[in-house]
Amino acid sequence: MKQLLAMCLMVGAMLSGTAQTVVDADDARILYSGRINFSNPKSPLFVYPAVQIGVDFHGTGIAMRAKPGCGYFMVTLDREEPFKVSFMDEDSVVTLATGLKEGNHSVKVMLATEGFELRPEFHGFVLEGNGYLLAKPAALSRRIEFIGNSITCGYGSEAASQHEHYSLENSNHYYSYAAILARELYAEEVCTARSGIGLYRNYKGKFPGQTMENWYDYTCIYDSTEVWDAARFRPDVICVNLGTNDLSTAGYDIEVYAESYRKFIRHLADLQPQAEIVILTSQMLFGNARQIQIDTLQQIYQQLKAEGLKVHFQVLRTQDPAKGYGADWHPSKAQNRQTADELLPLLQQLLYPN
Q: Which residues, at least 6 apart from 201, have a Cβ–Cβ distance to it below 8 Å?
């Protein structure tokens, strides 16, 4: 009862007027996208960037309810320019829009940051005045999954230069090559990525046994309470960008990497037999390590294609200093734009073959 009272008081503070309509997270008119644990339907949990939640509504304003301290979200209202909001430690309700012209509107929120530490939970919406939800938005017909590391997460993409270090404030998946491609291809995106992660070996060999091959089959990384049901999301295309952390520091075993990679791609093909799988090289490997990865992945691609798997291979360009850098030498917005432009023709052909 005290929690409900506190929520109502906070809603009153965030939204103007005296009447509000509270919408719970289990309302059937909410459109969800991404790896989400619905064990508690009133408080769904998610940790991977790019998880999206959307509604269409009639009214003049809307607020979002979530667990305090769960990070940053990008908000798109009525196809206007997106903006970022944050849930700080004291925030359980954040206004997304107020004072709109009364009528029909749409809003979509995307988790912009990695959530494996903060573990965001969504609690629902609050509509201003006498607003009400409309029918559930239509899902996009094309689907794409991006599997990767910090590059795919959008690590440091809003940083002013490479001299900034990672923070939640300067990292935004919305500006990653993956999210750019999903928007331009009108495709629903699922992002399964974590900074520092490798396929068989994490950055500098840290946290053995906590790699992508160990955690891919779970809804939330570092949480073994729920195995991900692959039938919940059937991608048309899966892009795999793994190897930067396996190979960027001394001590890697290229044979182990190659065998893990073959095994992982076969596993993806078993889980998602309808999907075209795109094998990508890293934008952040240089010199000998870059050439070793290119040669290794090309051999794996040729072998798997000969086995009849629906695989494709693309060598991505390394970062261009003229386009600047994000935090800790990661891709800037401009670098991510470059990668998206490189991949767009192939993905367009795979998603829209006719």
A: 208, 211, 245, 246, 252, 256, 257
Alpha-carbon dihedral angle through residues 299, 339, 182, 52, given to the nearest 10 degrees: 100
- Using left for φ > 0, alpha for ψ between -120 and 50, and beta otherwise, residue 34 falls in left
Q: How far apart are CA 301 and CA 277, in angstroms?
A: 10
Read off the amino acid at residue 340. Answer: A
Q: What mean pLDDT comes out for the span 287-313?
A: 98
CA distance 245 to 205: 8
pTM across the whole model? 0.94
The DSSP line for 39-96 is SSTTS-B--STT-EEEEEEEES-EEEEE-TT-EEEEEEETT---EEEEE-TT-SEEEE
- The per-residue pLDDT for range 261-276, each reduced to its tens digit, is 999 999 999 999 999 9
Of the candidates 98, 99, 96, 120, which has an alpha carbon nearest to the alpha carbon of residue 108? Answer: 96
In the chain, % of residues over pLDDT 70: 95
172/167 Cα distance (integer angstroms): 10
Query: To 10 degrees, what angle do helices 254-271 and 287-306 make?
Result: 40
Average pLDDT of the chain?
Answer: 94
